[in-house]
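Dissemination and training. As part of the outreach component of the grant, students in the summer workshop were shown how a complex can be specified as a set of sequence lines and then modelled as a single object. The example used during the hands-on session is reproduced here so that future cohorts can follow it. Participants entered these lines:
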Amino acid sequence: MSWLEAHLLTLVIFLPSAGAVLVALLPRSEGGQHKGVAFIFSLATFLASIPLWTSFHSGPARFSFEQKSEWAPSLGFSYHVGLDGVALLLFMLTALLGPIVVLSSWGYIRSRVKEYALALLLLETAMLGTFAALDLVLFYVFWEAMLIPMYLLIGVWGSERRIYAAVKFFLFTFIGSVLMLLAIFWLWSNSGAPGHRTFDYVALLEQGALPAERQKWLFLAFALAFAIKVPMWPLHTWLPDAHTEAPASGSIILAGVLLKMGTFGFIRYAMPLFPSAANQWAPAIAVLGVIGIIYGSLMCMAQTDLKRLIAYSSVAHLGFVMLGLSALTAEAVSGAVLQMVNHGISTGALFLMVGILYERTHTRELAAYGGVARVAPAMAAAFVVITLSSIGLPGTNGFVGEFLILLGTFTAKGMGSWTIGTAEFSKGITLAVLAASGVILGAVYMLWVVQRVFFGPERKAASHGMADLNLREWFTVAPLLLAIVWIGLAPQPLLDAMRRPVDEFIERVGRPQRAPPTAPGNKE
Amino acid sequence: MEVSWLHLIPLLPLAGAAVCGLLGKWLPKAWLYAIALVTVLLSFCIGLTGFLRLPEEVPIFHEVAFNWFSAGSLHVDMGFLFDRLSGALTLVVTGVGFLIHVYSVGYMDEDPGYWRYFAYLNLFIAAMLTLVLGDNLVAMFVGWEGVGLCSYLLIGFWYTDEEKAYAGRKAFVVNRIGDVGFLIGIFVLFNATGSVSFAQLGVAPLTLATASIAALCLFIGAIGKSAQLPLYVWLPDAMAGPTPVSALIHAATMVTAGVYMVARMSHLYTSAPGVLALVALVGALTALWAALIGTAQNDIKRVLAYSTVSQLGFMFIGVGVGAFFAGTMHLVTHAFFKACLFLGSGAVIHGLAGEQDLRRMGGLRKYMPQTAWTFAVATVAISGIFPISGFFSKDEILAQALHTKAYDFLTLGPGGPHLTSLGTILYLVGSFTALITSFYMWRCYFLAFEGEYRGPEGVHPHESPGIMTSPLWILAALSVLSLVIGLPEPWVRGSFLEHLNWEHFTGRLFSPPRGGPPAGFSPWPGYLVALAIGWAGFGLAWLLYAPARAASGDDRFAALFPRLRNAFANKFWVDEFYDWLVVRPLWSFARGLWRIFDATIIDGLFINGSAQLVAWVAALARRFQNGDVQRYAAVTALGVLALVYAFLLRSSP
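and obtained this result:
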């Protein structure tokens, strides 16, 4: 294994930071060089990540591109990174969105450009690192490192109520992560005799499951941190505010990547580390997921603010993902992972389009729009394609994900059943049928948006003429449109990549009784 | 037989759609037309070649184009199945589709969005072919939702009109309700059998309960797509789209998908006789319901739309009594005559500069004789007047209903009465509907083409160009010629026509209903009754709308049945009812939930409330840290005193 191969992952993770250093060294100026550096480095990051995808083999090792360097051996933490199929997909998604994000607010951000470019680049390293980390301390460092640039993105470059939204975002996420940190320390202090304790994820996983009664509180601490991030109902109210106030680039990152941190946290940490608690709580999480689907869709129908509407649609979509994860069947979990990627693409693209509209009209009010299709037909066509992906039309990526989740939930026999009176209802079937109503509601609100914004007579926002997509915007939209259709028609490479981690996840969480009862070193 | 060319049939129009959609704006018009038309024609030719070469022993071509997705135990292929049923429908879709493409060249030539139109139309053909040819339920679902998308795009084609955009959205959402039923049906079947492919589902043993639930769920999908009660309301509004689209999508092909699906799943439906009875009942009720509404509509396209809903109801009676061949046969003949009617109405609208109101037509036969003649032929067909195709296919359905044995084992609830007379009821309802059908169609014909011209001043009605009339002639000819597939089998036994006979042709494709097919019966009594009914409808129409006094016909009708006609004219207020029952409450509920629950309770009370609490506690704490050193000193002194006092208390015995 060459040096480059061994360090490729680390290089990709820190490439944006190298860009940040360069930006920091550049003089403050009015020109576009800060954004230019940010674009070049994020594009380079994406290009450098392509070999990760092409050379990824689900081989004998659980994690590919693994690299482990001691950091503080006496304390048991190390720089340990690696990717399994699930992390790889989200890693690639982040790398793909990077340059798109930089381009998205190119014309819109005019103040403090240098700091803006710095924030974007550092944020990208933090996001990539969060997916790649295999050590709990490292994970936590990257996790918290995401918070600050994102907080600044909303608070500095946002719109009118940005301070409120930024503080709310920060407090929500921070409260959750503090509990998670405590749980991480608990795990560490129980991982062995003093001096032999570890924060290493792989080592902790191999120690086997903790006693069931211990798992409960630890699981809840982890789950709360992640549930806020997803966000799961009823912890979602920071999301509409954050999205509405953030600039387009912030919204794309938030929807595209940051929300996935929550669902990724469930599939990577909360559920496999505490399998029997996860198994026990899975139906409850599934119920919250279904509530999120229906509730989020209904919220969308009530909105008058375009961005807020799309934000609530994330609540519904992530509800599908959580439902899929907690159904604990191979179909549903595969669908959930696929849907994480899909949501990043399609909702990222929706926020991109909303940003493009906002830049022209400076309004998010739905009522101000109408008839845009006549003056900007290409924009309308792109928006319709993204909408179709969002509502899961076959041929787009959204269908495969939703279909797998619903089918996998429907056939989930492990969930047991509810008894109402004398009638017995399989939880899987009931939840799948209820969740399927989200398929209808999704069409209701998204097509309503399309009609409201693009069809009908030209209203205020469109009547002064509106430029259609320009070349820069095409560069941002086109890759996402391609991804929508490509994954829709050929999702199998993605499903193949995730097969092994998904199978292991189900093996571990779906049948927790098979895990060794207590491994040595787990005693207090 | 495994082949490798089947995917070309849907792929060619898909490629055409891609080229037209992405490059159409910049292509010369002639090129665009050529691409759109030739791709469909090529699909037709491939389909025809395949159809003629179907092997005699096992008449099936099969191709797995690629593995679409697999996860867990689910394995979904993009596979295609070309048998006599899907083959025949391929020919109908591409054949009628091609004719409508030709017609559209004339109809849409002036429209600035012509390139978009042809892209959608080609995409529709591709989706419809996927629906028909898919070898498993998921592939079928791709086409199923794909045609719904094209329908949405084409209904709202003139999107600057808010009402048209709304009609498109309504169609999509109502269809989606059905689609979710379809999806759940897939889940039930996969859960029970571990497969989604027709080949395996066609032989899988299913318990009665599973089969019934799956059949019911899939039928909900059919109700949506094929516009049956209670989800038919989108179809009349779908007439907002360009008329050739109404002909192709909302009459000849897409809306028949539900009938096709039930026939394709005949094994499942015959395993669930209760659902089969429901299919027939829904069909019969819809047929009657829509026919009644159709008698009092003034928009020529709406008359045809309701007649489509009604005719689809007939097809469901056919498949619902277990006579899958009769339902699908009517599907084919209906595709010809209804496409002809719609294109005829398009020619009328075209020739009258956009006028669609029957009250402002009249006497058009003088101005557009070709349109009038072909419309008359198709009207004869749909009225079920001997000997044109509709007569045979419709009567086959009614005769099969009367003699059916599909319900012989069926009781109403455990130990309840037998449902043997259901077939007779279906027959009576169907026959009465046939009477009304003949009546409203002749009313339509008389109002449009006979009597005096009542149209708008300054409009000079004119015949359409040849590119539009030639498809009319071909479709009229097909409406007549397709009678050969409906001739009773005994009449053609031994002659070359036997191979064209639909019952014979599809013989081994469908599972027989549980009681077996009806025993041999003479077609004559049915024919005589049907003949009388067809002419009676014509006679009624003549009485009220005779050419000389057609204009006042509606008044005479209204004078006879004032209240009833009012109910028909208002479409039984179903749209208003749904609006009141579902649409408004849902939106109000959403708004209320947001304002009261999300914004006030969750975010206001809990989130901002707890933040307020923190702020309040902090404000309280701040009072103690106001920088006043004297107060600090006082508090410190008090504290020291308290401590000293506590120590004294503890140390004293």
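Chain B has a mean pLDDT of 90. Students were then asked to discuss how this feature might be tested experimentally.
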